Amino acid sequence: MSLLRIILIIIFLRIVSSIPDTIISHLSAELQIKIQIYFGLGNDLYDFSRLDGNYQKIIISHNISEEFKTYHDEPVLIIIRLERDLNLNLATLDVLRSYLTDRQYNDILLIDNDEENLNSYVDIRKAYWNAGFSQVLIYNSQQRTWSIKPYPYLQIRPTSLKEYIENRNTRNLMGYPLRVLVTNDPPHCFVDKDELPGSPNRYKGSIVTMLKIFADQLNATFQANPFREFRRYSTADCVQMVSDDEIDACGSIFIRTYTYATSQPVRLNRVVIMAPFGNPIEKFYYFFRPFDLYVWIGTGIIVVYIAVMGSLLHRWHFKEWNVGQYLLLAVQTLLNRELSLPQSSSGSKFMLLLLLFAIGFILSNLYVALLSMMLTTKLYQRPIENLADLKAANVNILLQTHNIRPNSVYGSSEELRERFLLVEESQHLEKRNGLDPSYAYVDSEDRMDFYLYQQKFLRRRRMKKLSNPVGYTWAVQVIKQNWVLEKHYNDHVQRFFETGLQNKLVDDVHELAVKAGFLHFFPTQTQTIEPLRLEDIVMAAMVLGGGHALAVICFLVELFA
Q1: Rounded to an integer, what distance in angstroms lies between the CA atom of residue 310 and that of residue 312?
Q2: pLDDT tens, residue by residue, 454-472
Q3: Environment class of 132 (CB within 10 Å of its CB; exposed 0-12, middle 13-18, buried 19+)
Q4: Is there a contact between 324 and 558 (Cβ–Cβ < 8 Å)?
Q5: CA-to-CA dists, residue 67 to 51, 63, 291, angstroms
Q6: Name one GO biological process term (predicted).
Q7: Is the Cβ–Cβ distance between 38 and 49 less than 8 Å?
């Protein structure tokens, strides 16, 4: 037998004997694995075909296409042979992390054919944990298995296959910190300054409360990481802090995109407009308000008709025109003055009297009654119901920098975009938080409901929420890429949504904000007698001026007729 053949047989026997058939088969059976993926970037190529043929197998020896990672069913068992070079093992991990993005909950079996080295195991296992892989089992040449105990601190410990399977989905984090970015961004998160800085009740909000409950269920410690000066942070700020491993999640709602890691979307977030409920009308417009445009046009036509018909009758009997007298007579009846009919035949007087009574007396008394009622109360503009009403009322929608990106995602129409007015953040907060009815505002529905809660005890509301939303987005939280607790948190959010607790948190946050002094009720309007003001005299002056103008017109007509 040649020396080359002997060397090949030795290499073959070494490879075959180094494959832990039993542990792979048992692990695959216990975890109901569908596909076994053998992964490694080492120089040694080996044959796994002799293993149990009941499972589909994929052998990856280089960085494959990203599209290939969706071409197999789950769950999968990743089998990796450790190399002597730590850098090569870390390079394999980088490719694996890209391959299993957002699927870090799959099990990984690391096979070590060299001598046992606990220090190396600690470095490798820490790297896998930081990459998001918590379910990792190490099997060495001495047929010993090692796993990680991450809580309350990271350590390597020997284990058995049975113990690993029982503890792989442990829900006791033993005080492990859950790092959450917090700031003043109601209703999702806000700061109660009356509470001590170290108090767990200092930070409130719908999302923060949900994260606190999640930490309690897993016996973790909620660790609040305040954003600088409690300013509202942008999506880029949150993503950067997550990437730098400063935090695990952000305590606000974000728009779901595929550019950063987020929690599982379970709820559609409606984007609505908060518009003025109806601003008071200036008093000098009250003169025209009892009748609408068509009634005024009809009244004018009737006045002209009475003047023309009376003049024609006067011309017929007395052979001369007298337009001014009959025009003044028609206007006099509208002003509810006593009647003084001109000389004419009895039939003409009777017809003229019927016209003046039906038109002048009834209309004038109806007008006076309506005007008196309006003067004793207040008139308001019609409530805005849609974008067309918003445009007709010439009301702009205030935006700040945080709203620009979301509104591009909402797919807002041109009709909506033309109403946008970009202002500084401080001005936007002052106007929106105070429900200034001079402008409209656009944001998520839960945020609008939060600020509209301030007018709970007003007799007449300042603002209203338009019924038709302008867009929908998935409500998600930014989390760490390949977060080890991602699957647990997604299950937690799903249960909150299915049981309705998520809606209860959104409703409860209003009262929490009032108790914390972050939200204040507007005082109820008092019913008091208002003194006469200059704007009330303006309307009377307009009526008087209109009468004098009409008299001048009639005089000129008589003069040149």
Answers
A1: 5
A2: 998 888 888 999 988 888 8
A3: buried
A4: yes
A5: 27, 12, 69
A6: Golgi organization
A7: no
* pLDDT per position as a tens digit, 237-258: 999 999 898 999 999 988 887 7
Provide the pLDDT confidence category of residue 42 given band limits of 50, 70 and 90: low
Read off the amino acid at residue 128.
Y
pTM of the model: 0.74
Q: Residue type at 228?
A: R
Which pair of structure tokens corresponds to residue 130? Answer: 């930081």
Q: Pairing relation of β-strands 440-444 and 203-204?
A: unpaired
Per the DSSP assignment, residues forming a β-bridge with 421 are 398
DSSP H helical ranges for 244-287: none
> With contact defined as beta carbons under 8 Å apart, do 139 and 20 qualify?
yes
User: Strands 397-399, 440-444: parallel, antiparallel or unpaired by DSSP?
Assistant: parallel
Which has the closest alpha carbon to 376: 533, 544, 530?
530
- 193-201's contacts with Cβ under 8 Å and 24+ in sequence apart are 193/516, 193/517, 194/516, 194/517
Please list the residues that pair with 444 across neighbouring strands: 271
The domains found in the chain, sorted by start residue, are: 15-167 (3.40.50), 173-263+477-528 (3.40.190.10), 290-378+544-560 (1.10.287)
**Is residue 281 a contact partner of residue 532, using CB atoms and an 8 Å limit?**
no
Q: What is the DSSP string of 176-231?
A: -EEEEEE-SBTTTBEE-TTS-TT-TTSEESHHHHHHHHHHHHTT-EEEEEEPGGGP
The C-alpha atoms of residue 32 and residue 228 are separated, in whole angstroms, by 47
Alpha-carbon distance of 20 to 51, in angstroms, equals: 9
| Structure token pair of residue 67 | 């599209």
CA dist 38 and 96 (Å) reads: 11
Residue 313 main-chain phi, psi, to 5 deg: -65, -40
**pLDDT bracket for residue 347 (50, 70, 90):** low
Distance of CA 29 to the CA centre of its chain: 45
| Segment 103-117 mean pLDDT | 78
The answer to whether 100 and 74 are in contact (CB under 8 A) is: no
User: What is the average pLDDT across 7-20?
Assistant: 45
Q: Is 420 exposed, middle or buried (0-12, 13-18, 19+ CB in 10 A)?
A: middle
Distance in angstroms (rounded) separating the CA atoms of residues 126 and 116: 17
The candidate with the shortest Cα–Cα distance to 289, out of 369, 392, 398, is: 369
- Percent of residues, the chain, with pLDDT higher than 90: 14
- Backbone phi, psi, residue 310, to 5°: -65, -40
Dist. CA 335–CA 2, nearest whole Å: 129
Helix, coil or strand: residue 109: strand
Q: HSE, CB side, 13 Å, CA atoms: give it for residue 144.
A: 11
In the chain, helix, strand, coil percent, each to 5? 45, 15, 35
Q: In the chain, what is the straight-line distance between the N-terminal and C-terminal CA atoms, in Å?
A: 140
* Residue-wise DSSP of 48-99: -TTS-TTSEEEEE-S---GGGGGSS-SSEEEEEEPPS-HHHHHHHHHHHHHH
